[in-house]
Amino acid sequence: MKYLFKLALKNIMKARRRTILTFLMLSFGVMVYLIMESMLAGFDKASFQNFIDFETGHFKIRNENFDEDHPYDTDYSLKNTDQIEEKLKNLDFVTGYTSRINFLSEIDNGIDSTPVITVGVDPENDSKVFSLKKYIIKGSLEKGGALLGKTLADDMKVDAGDIIYITFRSSKGMFTSIELLITGLVQSADPKVNNLTVFINLDEAREHMGVEGATEITFRVKDYQEPERYTKQLESDFSGFRVQSWKELSTDFTALMSTKRAGGRYFLLFIVVIALVGIINTLLMSVYEKRREIGTLMALGMEHNEIRNVFMIEGFLIGFFGSICGLIIGTITNLYFIYSGIDYTAMVGEGGMGFNVMGVIKSSWVISAYISSLLIVVFASVLSSYYPAKKVMKMNPAECLRTVQ
Amino acid sequence: MLLEIKNLNKTYHSGKVDFQALYDINLSIKDREFTAIAGPSGSGKTTLLNSIGCIDRVDSGDILMMGENLTDKTQRELARFRRQNYGFIFQTYNLIPVLTVYENVELPLKLLKKLSDNEIHGKVHEMLNKVGLQGLDKRMPLELSGGQQQRVSIARALVKKPKVVLADEPTANLDSKTGQTIVALMKELNKKEGITFLFSTHDHFIMEQADRLIEMHDGRIKK
Amino acid sequence: MKKSFLLFFLLIPLIASAETADEIINKVDQNQLFITQKYKIEMTIKKGNRELAKEFFGYGQKDGDKAFMEFTNREDLGVKYLKLNDELWIYFPDADDIMKISGHMLKQGLMGSDISYEDLLETEEMKTKYESKFIKSENFDGRDCYVIEANAKVEDASYQKQILFIDKEKYIPLKIEMYAKGGRLLKNMLLSDIRKVGSRYVPWKIEIQDKRRRNSKTTLVFKEIIYDINVPENTFTRRSLKK
What we know:
Chain B has seven helices and ten strands. Chain B has about 220 residues and is an alpha/beta fold. A six-stranded mixed sheet of chain B has the order 6-7-8-3-9-10, with helices on both faces. In chain B, strands 2-1-4-5 form a four-stranded antiparallel sheet, covered by helices on one side. The longest helix of chain C is centred in the first third of the chain and has 31 residues, at about 1-30.
């Protein structure tokens, strides 16, 4: 077997243009796949980070009857937020907490109106949980004022210093329209914040909405990677409330991410097709071109299946080295994407390709992409070399030797 | 008797046309014989050699080599038998182009899977010396002249000390002078190494070198 | 005597008005009372330069506040709504699915119009939720009108304030202004082409403007309205949606 490997390797080393082309295509495919997976993983990571930083925090406490299908209903809110906050304050693993009121309203400038998410923000505590404050590009959130997503403000053709109205029905049902001075603009990595959110003062939201406490209290913990370790204590401390970790809060989001990740899988499938077509073609030609060589080897006493194996090993080697080569080039290319990152906003606009990200995104290492591409490409290569290689089995040495070349 | 051939028949089928290449061949070859098979093209020389070398099937008859009947054997058994007992020399040399001279000569020994690398190394160099190719072991076949390539081919056929070397028109692609030196080399090795040679040729000078001459015509051996 | 007589006449409208703000509203409410109704409406939604025309028919049953609507224009053919008490259901023929409209969805406009689902299907009785006050008499659209200001008595009223221009003769509001908490005029409703159907007056044309948007208007024009008829059986059941 070792000798067969050596023979196959010699054949590969003196490869013809066809073989080199197949090899390069595989390398290229694997390289692109690796870069793509890393990019997607980077998007994922950034997305998740944004999701945590802007939406879920590490844990949320909500009313027991909170309806996930209607997250902006204020029917089920938390009444005694002070009490809950006090309790959180005394938990040593909680690093920060804040109350928010979320509800839907319509924003208008007297000409146009559009539905928005309105968030009542606690000016003191919010930055201990959410990253909102860091992304304010102009002004700040002040009493009697509103902080608008930059894209939303652009859409409404307003800027800081302008007046807007938000109209909503209070928790009791009365239409309420309030005039707000835009005191700040925010542009964050979260498109939801940019495109459709109006932030106002928590106390004002309480007053206008007729809500006593808040719709949710969000907090951060020391070890957020493993929220499960806190679940038990939190459940007993806050029985009668709904306490959910970011993992539980992001199930829809995770599902969305995994569908996006499927794109990478399809690409891998595409490489497999290249492998199949390329290797079948290369080896088939090679088997016919080397008929006299095959006959010679048979005359020298090599068994049919040994010669077949040489060809299969060639397929394996093309796949293996093609993958390795692609992975190496991909890794080198990835270094840039991973350590410097790319500003996708400039490339795809603020829509962000449907990802929850903006700005410079750094790719992530994806070990599984190395393993899966190597395994799958090698497997596909060996598999596709089987068909051409088995042609050898039916060959007659004398006929092969008669071949005029 | 090293090799006995009895009532050998072989017909080629090409579409609806049948062409009988061997008619009832009976032949015996003694150990250490240096035998030439002569005859015009299409007389069945190559078919006979291929049949003896069991790289082609026959329709009927027996090929007995050292008492073993080769016509009963499976493809795999035949491959192993060839590996042990036969050396082949081809008109077109048929060296493996991606292997060096050394590696080409080494190939049969590697297939035997019996010897260590050191032993192989010794045998290959010894053989290359015998065919006068010392110092060319790292060359690629295509860097060599036709005569040199055929020397490599001879080295490859003989390195494993087979019982029989079968050579189909070994000099046909060479100029006559080179051809003569090749046959001289073959004969020398036949005598020195005690290896049986069976070769086809239509070159009269070369026929004269043979211990025994078998003449073929239209698939039959001329008496 | 003469003097006091004159004074009496001068005071009549004042006294009458002061006393009748509630009565006027009562009469308006009464005019709108029905047991069952069937109607066919053409709805035009204007948003900026875009105009959409839709058509639907419906049944109403005051008792228990039940309503059923089915769209008949091509784009929305077969879309049906059903209101049972506090619940609103919608049926989409394309998806062949019944969906309950609840929470914030109730605040969306019916088929993208300026009428929210609540506006259309939730009929508030003025007298239970609003305190009415006569302001003045004014001519509107060529008709003598009472101008009534209705202020919310309770927090769950939809509007903080409504100003109604009520036709003195027919007891039909010709214009209703709806104000949000905070005092802002949100919506304007104009009712015209008043026709007599049986014993009651019915505005044949209703225009609703959302004052928060420029160039936004929804117009409803009745094609047909019949009161107190027999409603086909099972109309107000969820099964009727899928039929």
